[in-house]
Amino acid sequence: MIDLHSHILPGLDDGSPDLAMSLEMARLAVADGTTHMACTPHVMPGVYENATPNIAEAVQALELELYRAAIPLTLYVGADVHLAPDLPDRLRLGTVPTLNGSRYFLFEPPHHILPPRLEDFAARLIGAGFVPILTHPERLTWIKANYDVIERLNTLGCLIQLTADSVTGAFGRTALYYSEKLLDEGRVDIVASDTHGASRRRPGLSQAVVAIANRCGEDEAYNMAVKRPDAILQDRPLVPIGKQSARKSGGSSAGRFGGLGRLFKSGAL
Ligand SMILES: [Fe+2]
């Protein structure tokens, strides 16, 4: 499986504090069936001053340590990008990294406050040739009163990323409710771990993938954990699932768990 959202790089944000933790996170991810992972530290002006050069350098350093420790996890450069007025310019200049240099980037809106004109801002980013992937909308506290904003962002062309722990219920009932609503409405493009450590918010997608397969069918679970993340890393065009015509919901009728083996073994690509 391919995990496009992780805070595995040591010392860059509120994720892994040191190399030992990063290696343990990588081991856990691999044991759970993750083969490829985007390293996406927060980029938040004034709080986490990360940018492409220091993120790329940290990815290279961790790649070397993974090689030394014989942990088969392929890493990619990325970022968990927070709202900033100069974001379109910084993306264009390449100082804020997209996912593996593609048109796609993780876009994390403020957790507790809906910024005014968020849709206009997203439209500007899309107009500039980028595709924002809205991170875990199901966890935003303002989703309750503003679900229509999420719908419109999706219609505009933003992709949607669910967090694995939301789908399994680990983030509580509200996050689970909106995960299932978004899944049932066919709006979810990818699932990712957003891992921050080896115990709390640990890596791994398999439990969420099983839950998604039960709800939406195995094919869609595969699309969210392998096929679309792969297309994103390769910068292939993707139409947000929420913009496509009606998609089936409900579990597949036969072999609900049987086909999932392909997700959990190494080399799913
Ligand atoms: Fe994150």
3D structure, described in words:
With 269 residues, the chain is an alpha/beta fold. It has one domain (2-264): Metal-dependent hydrolases (TIM Barrel, Alpha-Beta Barrel), CATH 3.20.20. It is built from 10 helices and 9 strands. The chain has helices spanning 19-31, 52-68, 87-93, 118-127, 147-156, 164-167, 173-184, 206-216, 218-233, 261-264; strands spanning 2-3, 36-39, 42-43, 74-77, 80-82, 104-108, 131-135, 159-163, 190-192. Helix 8 crosses helix 9. It is globular and about 50 Å long. Bound molecules: fe (ii) ion. This is protein-tyrosine-phosphatase. InterPro entries: Caps_polysacc_synth_CpsB/CapC, Pol/histidinol_Pase-like. It catalyses: O-phospho-L-tyrosyl-[protein] + H2O = L-tyrosyl-[protein] + phosphate. Pfam families: CpsB_CapC.
In short:
Helix content is 39%, strand content 12%.
The kinds of small molecule bound in this structure are:
fe (ii) ion
Instruction: Classify the beta-strand content into a percent band.
Output: 5-15%
Topology order in helix (H) and strand (E) letters: EHEEHEEHEHEHEHHEHHH
Query: From the 3D coordinates, which CATH architecture would you assign?
Result: Alpha-Beta Barrel
Q: Quote the distance from N terminus to C terminus.
A: 8 Å
Q: Which structural class matches the secondary elements?
A: alpha/beta
* Share of helix, binned: 25-40%
CATH homology superfamily name = Metal-dependent hydrolases
CATH class: Alpha Beta
**Taking strands numbered 1, 2, ... along the chain, how are they ordered across the largest sheet?**
3-5-6-7-8-9
Number of helices: 10
Low-confidence runs: 245-258
* Domain count: 1
The count of β-strands is: 9
What would the principal axes of the Cα set say about the shape? globular
Described by strand count, sense and barrel closure, the largest sheet is: 6 strands, parallel
What oligomeric state do these chains adopt?
single chain
Q: CATH topology, which one?
A: TIM Barrel
Specify Rg, calculated over alpha carbons. Answer: 17 Å
The pLDDT mean sits at: 92
EC number: 3.1.3.48
Pfam family, one: CpsB_CapC
Enzyme class: hydrolase
Keywords: Hydrolase
